[in-house]
Amino acid sequence: MRESEERVDRHIFEGDRETAWCPGCGNFAIRSALIHTLSTCNIHPHEVVICSGIGQAAKMPHYLKVNGFNGLHGRALPPAIGLRAANPNLWVIVESGDGDTYGEGGNHFLHTIRRNPNIAHFVHNNRIYGLTKGQASPTTGDDIKRGLPFGSGGTTFNPILSAVAMGASFVARGFAGDKGHLQELMERALLHRGYALVDILQPCVSFNKVNTYQWYRERVYHIEDHDPADFDGALRLAREWGERIPLGVFYQEERPIFLDSFSYLKKNPLERDVRPKEYAYLLEEMK
Amino acid sequence: MDFNLVIGGEAGQGLNTLEAVLTKVLFRNGYHLFCSKDYMSRIRGGHNFVELRISTTPKRGPSQGIHLLLALNEKTLALHRERVRESGMILFNGEREEEGILSIAAERMAESLGEKRVVNTIFIGALLKMMGLGRAEVEEIFASTWKDPILSLNLKALEAGYEEVERVFSLSEREIFHDRIMLSGNEAIGLGAALAGVSFYSAYPMTPSTGIMNYLSSKQEDLGLVVEQAEDEIGAINMALGASYGGVRAMTGTSGGGFSLMNEGLGLAGITETPLVIANVQRPGPATGLPTRTEQGDLLFVINSSQGEFPLHVIAPRDAEDAFYQTFRAFNLADKYQLPVVLLSDQFLADSLIDSKQFSLEELENNRYFVEEGDYQDHYRRYQITEDGISPRAYPGQILGEVVLVDSDEHDSQGFIIEDADQRKAMVDKRARKLEKLKKEDTLEPIYEGGEEVDLLILCWGSTYGPLKEALQLLTEEGILAGLLSFNHLWPLPLKELEKRKGMSPLMITVENNSTAQLAQLIKSQLSIEFQGHILKYDGRPFYGEELYTRITQEVLSR
Fold first, then answer.
1. Given CB 3.0 to 4.6 Å as the disulfide criterion, which of A207, B146, B222, B306 pairs with B266?
2. ipTM of the complex
């Protein structure tokens, strides 16, 4: 695989913080892939914002030197949308976990797909609640649920299938144990014009004893011979899980983005300098 | 002159159109207006009415006695007939023969003109004639709204209505106002936000707050701002916080139910120290309550909202004029102190249309308070500990090579998560110092109106001010001296004026549109003080001046 050239010294992204992640956690590889992606895309720390919710994945902005909005659990997407409107010159990335995105934040996930803002969304999907020590998440598999002390009815949520079906303009799956491929997906997601979801299979070494690195390695394969513009094909691929798990881009299309609805904006909202006395005509309308 | 026109009918009968045309005509004829709405939470049927108080001096509340009642249906007649004054008139839509009622078979007349929908135009003609006003203004409004054949049809209907009745009252033509404007409370908040440079407004539609979003979205292209309808109120407040973090002025608006959903986001604004203006246009709760009606039931909830302790500023505007200036000011204060500011309005204020002295824009200035490059040592630190608690605020990308990290977890001066005891305490203290500074520098004391020696001191907050002013005048006419202390800044609670005034009368009461006297409770939590009574109303309706006068004399003074 081609390794893209790093254009910004990766060391400037390094924070001086000790992480709270367990040794061997999939988050380390995701972090490293993210730094590589920023560097190859020639993005400097002050030009990018990482929005996150709450959970182990959501601590990402603390472990990098970038702008960060570490908000509420489940609410990583809405601030990113507001930020997009405020200053379209920034790069906006959302980092969140499966509970944050598909559980607590499900409604925002649905409507972000509909709005199609120019945001790259990297979901660290470890299929378990790590920070609260091992409860089921919406993506927890049936095989794991049986062994959990807490109840969780219903079937396993399939984020890829849902995102494709709901009309997301970029849907991909990566694997924390396949960093080169993940970097490639992250770069494509970041450069995609619109909402780009990358669901990342992330082994949780402490609480998910089923979906281990080994378990994934025996099953994952790279999607080939699939046209990302093929919606029906994407739906078929998205349903594949179990013996074989596809990695790569399932679906991609160009369609109007969130800010296109506001094409009347003559300048970046951040540059507005409003002097009240210039708006006397608004009072005249009330006469 | 003080003339009260009431129009009632079913939802869907075109009350809003009637109101819009008549208020414009009357305003352009040089009359002061106070126009309030009473509507049900439905699209068709039920009973709705508008009250148009037309006067030669400004009034700030509705009046009980009716001079002219237009009953578009039987129900209006049944419900409002007893409020019609002896010298008053009833105009009825139909063919009812009864003393004291003037019936117009407007639907039949409209059919003969070939268009059923001109019923309301016929009534506009009839009302103008009965009140003694000419048709020129309304013809001008029609000409600017419609083209032929709709225009000529409506002009014919107007004439037909005009010819159908006799002149009864004499609202003679007055000199037109040059220095007054007409607007509702919701429009005033929208206008205040627009002039404060709001660039992002996100909200979920919720009665009675939606008018703010309507105003701003009608101006979004002209002003270059983004109005986004969020998927829910949680999304709305979090989007607005993202925009504010990004460096623009952001706002959200809702009513009590939506505000409940926004609570966690409010705390997020508090701990991340992100400026935000939130309008809570109150309606009676709990839960869905009475969606289209009024109450001041959220005061203590809003002041104590969201878990944990953080500084928050709460303002309750008195009327549309005050709402404009307070909204404008709220944005500057949110930026100066980096905290959430809640505008506590209510349905009565939001939906009442008044005329007001044209706002003075000359003195208004927007101040953003962003850090200047170099105004910090070594590296930029978003939460640098300072003497007054206000840390240097930058937006992402503002300073080359520096990053801005904000966090809902407790954090250190750079925004990194921490859990150690000393830094936690230092951050709580830092945030609290902002409120102390706000208290000293920017909190507005309540306004006192009345003499230095009074029989009764009345305390109120927010929109009850208008009806109380009227009650005070009625009391004065009866030789009862009362003073009114009206609060619009409620948190932090200003105490100086109150401490000065509290001993001036042996009788001190609060007047509130709620059932538990929340202002009195709030004051008692801050000051050793006793009240001798409360006038409370919690049936979902606003106070009338006359009603307050009666209740004050009966429930307070005669005891």
1. B306
2. 0.97
